[in-house]
Amino acid sequence: MFDAVTGQPQLAAMRPIFRPALVNDPFGDPGLYVDFKFEKRALLFDLGDLTALPPKKILRISDVFVSHTHMDHFFGFDRLLRLCLGRNTSLRLYGPPGFAAQVEHKLAGYTWNLVENYPGDFFIDAWELDANWQARGTRLRCRNRFHAEPLAARHLPGGVLLDEPAFRVRAAFLDHGTACLGFAVEEKIHVNVWKNRLAELGLAVGPWLKELKDAVLRNAPDATPVRACWRDGSGEHERVLSLGLLKAAVLRQVEGEKICYVTDVAFHPDNVQRITALAANAAQLFIECVFLDQDADHAARKHHLTARQAGSIARAAGAKLVTPFHFSPRYADREADLRREIEAAAAAT
Fold first, then answer.
1. Pick from 174, 323, 185: which is nearest to 260 by CA?
2. Which residues touch 342 (CB under 8 Å, ≥6 apart)?
3. Where does residue 194 fall: left (phi above 0), alpha (psi -120 to 50 degrees), or beta otherwise?
4. Nearest-CA neighbor of 291 among 280, 283, 277, 302?
5. Which of 230, 247, 252 is CA-nearest to residue 239?
6. C-alpha closest to that of 94 among 68, 126, 135, 69
7. Measuring CA to CA, which residue among 186, 156, 161 is closest to residue 171?
């Protein structure tokens, strides 16, 4: 189909590579599960109660980002561990200062005398960060009874904890009366296909398009050969074309989307500045909304945000969609009031 105004072929709707969803309802433990649409993989932000996540979802997790280790943010570590034991898999965990030792202590609370019999050698790389973005890592391997094996220290400029061809995860140091991390998942670019132009070249959609997009994301040379393979009613087809030709003819690259996760933070200028920078122009901001503004003094004592404060931060950041969570149980019958307050503050001019 062609656009009636421009006469240009229509582009398939932009589809980010992530599907983010809160692990629990807004009164439950904080946590954000970010699934990959086109891979058997997921990211997890905070390790609170994971009961709501079925094992198949937990086993997709490759990286866990822990804001801080208050119990409602770290309680679910044992469930994650139990499901991974005996499998040939690994996890990377990231947290604030002291985090690697806390993971070690969690594991030291169990007896591991039979792990040599496990079929898989599961291991965890636990990374703790300091305010200068120096990362100290420890490898904890199942068949080594989870004894600590130091990893080479790393510097993570700009708070970029994970940097892959399609996306990065960035952190910001925040204050909750203790060091606490906020996180942003930044998709680097969208690579979309002009389906009409694909047909004009005599090509058809198929799994080969993922390989084409991957080549673009890793900045492969334009001369890179791309093998287009597909099957239709007349059989199997294959053609080899250069990456440069396909980029020019059938692809469109646009800026990717950002998802931001912020919880357990005090409302003061330094936190506000850091959060708005982290969440600037986010497609979706998941932000704590613990108290009503009528209880702002109590929120300050607890180092948490009110709904109005959260909404004002979302507005300052220019977030397009705001999803509140971490509601205080004192408002069990006033959820609508919390939502109205954050929505009003986020929309204020």
1. 185
2. 289, 307, 308, 310, 311, 314, 322, 324
3. beta
4. 302
5. 230
6. 126
7. 161
Provide the pLDDT confidence category of residue 15 given band limits of 50, 70 and 90. Answer: low
Over 50: is that where the pLDDT of 56 sits? Answer: yes
Q: Which two tokens stand for residue 105?
A: 């202590």
β-partners of residue 43 are: 34, 63
**Residue 30 and residue 8: Cα distance in Å, rounded?**
45
Token digits for 228? Answer: 């287009």
Contact partners, residue 83, CB within 8 Å, separation at least 6: 55, 58, 59
From the centroid of its chain, how far is CA 66? Answer: 11
Token digits of residue 10 = 């229509």
SS3 312: helix
Count CB-CB contacts under 10 A for residue 88: 10
Tell me which DSSP letter residue 85 carries: T
3: left (phi over 0), alpha (psi -120 to 50) or beta: beta
* Entry field: residues in the chain: 349
Q: Which residues contact 243 (CB under 8 A, 6 or more apart)?
A: 212, 215, 216, 220, 221, 222, 223, 224, 225, 226
For residue 159, which amino acid is it?
G
Q: Which amino acid is at 311?
A: G
Which amino acid makes up residue 265? V
Share of the chain above pLDDT 70, in %: 95
**CA separation, residue 340 to residues 250, 335, 346 (Å):** 44, 9, 10
Nearest CA among 20, 42, 9 for reference residue 257? 20
Q: What is the pLDDT of residue 210?
A: 82
Strand pairing category for 61-65 and 90-95: parallel
User: What percentage of residues in the chain have a pLDDT greater than 90?
Assistant: 75
Residue 325 pairs with which residues in a beta bridge? 288
